[in-house]
Amino acid sequence: MFEVRQLAPVGALVEGLRVGALDDETVGRLRQVLARHGVVIMSGQCVDDSGFLAFLRGFGELMFTAGETPVPGFADLNVISNVGRTTPPRSNFHVDTSYVRRPPAYTALRAVDVPRHGGHTLFTNQYRAWETLPAHVRGDLQGRSITHVVTGLDLGDDEETSAAHPVALTHPLSGRTALYLSTPKRCAAVSGLSVDRAARVVSMLVAHSTREDNVLRHQWRPGDVVMWDNRCVMHRADHDGVDGDRVMHRGMVADSVRA
Question: In sequence order, what DSSP letters do the residues of 83-138 get, joined into one string?
Fold first, then answer.
């Protein structure tokens, strides 16, 4: 059995767990930890891509973001890397692949190369973001949806590029309400609002969600595996001042509820 140490304002350290193929009971407990804490950090893991995939498959059907670069020999994983770039990557707070009807419930990163300095990943608590909104704002948002659209990827004609999801998302395991949105460029419309008002509302909600007191900053170390629940957190990579190679392998698990 693993131990859980809560972090603030979101996330938990999971100790005593080896990333790899897990039994159903352990996966079920991890699902509950993710539903409660949003992010789990598992340090000191000696796991390769085969073991990482076995771990992910325990949570359900894997999915891949079309247009991303797959890990050689592991088509269900993609590479996130700054190697060979003349300019740093850019990242804003977002949820992964929310422009499809069935977005990922979970995303996980395996640290392959960790830079000497920088390259942290930041996470927000979207339960807290919802709960700390003024009551009249929550009332206005109830029942509304945001239309999420793809940005920055060249997709084929047969790929999904747009999907609507509730702004107030009830998590299927915790039963709590999370503020579900993404970076403003990916939020094309809010149901029942004009284009201009929708843009102002989304901008306000993102600013509210990403306040410093609502953000966990994770500093990567060799052997780290981090998993998060896209239904109750947003995230972004901080590429400012990175010194050294930053290479991550990413896997995602589709949501078994939404379709």
Answer: TT-SS-----SB-TTTTSSS-EEEEEEEEEE--SB---EEEE-HHHHHHTS-HHHH
**pLDDT tens for each residue of 104-130:** 999 999 999 999 999 999 999 999 999
3-class SS of residue 140:
helix
**Contact (CB, 8 A) for 111 and 246:** no
Length of the chain in terms of residues written: 259
- What CA–CA distances, in Å, run from 62 to 8, 74, 97, 106? 29, 12, 13, 9
Asked if residue 181 lies in contact with residue 93, where contact means CB atoms within 8 angstroms, the answer is no
pLDDT band of residue 50 (cuts 50, 70, 90) is very high
Domains of the chain as residue ranges with CATH: 3-125+218-254 (3.60.130.10), 128-209 (no CATH)
